[in-house]
């Protein structure tokens, strides 16, 4: 009986020692969670990190300092995969699924937005949702879209994407504009004709009355600024 008890105790001790030499899956998940919390700290909204399960069948050597990383081309946004590597005492690398949700405000159409017409505030509504599930380049502030025009017609309820909007032209093709340039001790002003449509801040080419082609920055009021 004593021999049997001794054998069982020895078996339990060996099993415990073996478990102590194995990497705890909970520590792996904690490493991933802490890594994603840091990586997503600057995202615009309330961030929630969910770490997926680790395969319990994996027998990884215990690692005193596991290092988490994102694979090239991935970011802490929506469904992602985080790698965890160990360099010593036994090198290994595993990949753990995770999800980063970002609850924040976005701008949607409160009423139909016709194509090509300036967007006004009555057509907009501020909504809240998981930004990671919405289209890329989503508008998050009304100031980003007011006064712009849409390349497509937008139905009520749909989010507004910045890549489908454009600023209103402040300079029109063929328009007579005032070419201006300021510098230390001088100011130049001349008349020219715009060669294309341009929004505020865009580069536009103009042609002077003397036939010279010059590029400048379009400004409201039919002005084009040139730096010499």
From TrEMBL:
Provide this UniProt record's keywords sorted from A to Z: Bacterial flagellum biogenesis, Cell projection, Cilium, Flagellum, Periplasm, Signal
Supply the SMART domains for this chain.
SAF
**Could you tell me which residue ranges the SAF domain spans?**
104-166
Signal peptide residues on this chain, from the entry's feature table = 1-19
Q: Where in the cell is it found?
A: Periplasm
Q: Which family does it belong to?
A: Belongs to the FlgA family.
Reported function = Involved in the assembly process of the P-ring formation. It may associate with FlgF on the rod constituting a structure essential for the P-ring assembly or may act as a modulator protein for the P-ring assembly.
Task: Output this protein's name.
Answer: Flagella basal body P-ring formation protein FlgA
Q: Which organism is it from?
A: Pseudoduganella chitinolytica
């Amino acid at each position: 009986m004593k021999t049997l008890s001794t054998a069982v105790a020895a078996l339990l001790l060996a099993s415990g020692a073996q478990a102590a030499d194995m990497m705890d899956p909970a520590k792996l998940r904690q490493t991933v969670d802490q890594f994603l919390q840091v990586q997503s700290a600057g995202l615009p909204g309330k961030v929630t990190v969910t770490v997926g399960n680790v395969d319990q069948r994996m027998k990884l050597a215990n690692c005193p300092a596991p290092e988490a990383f994102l694979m090239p081309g991935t970011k802490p946004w929506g469904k992602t995969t985080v790698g965890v590597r160990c360099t010593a005492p036994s090198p290994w690398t595993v990949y753990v699924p995770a999800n980063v949700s970002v609850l924040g405000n976005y701008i949607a159409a409160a009423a139909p937005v016709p194509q090509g017409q300036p967007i006004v505030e009555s057509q907009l509504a501020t909504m809240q949702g998981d930004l990671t599930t919405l289209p890329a380049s989503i508008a998050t502030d009304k100031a980003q879209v007011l006064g712009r025009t849409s390349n497509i017609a937008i139905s009520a309820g749909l989010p507004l994407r910045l890549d489908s909007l454009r600023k209103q032209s402040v300079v029109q093709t063929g328009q007579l504009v005032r070419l201006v340039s300021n510098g230390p001790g001088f100011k130049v002003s001349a008349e020219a004709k715009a060669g294309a449509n341009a929004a505020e801040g865009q580069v536009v080419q103009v042609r002077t009355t003397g036939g010279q082609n010059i590029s400048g920055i379009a400004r409201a009021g039919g002005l084009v600024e040139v730096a010499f």
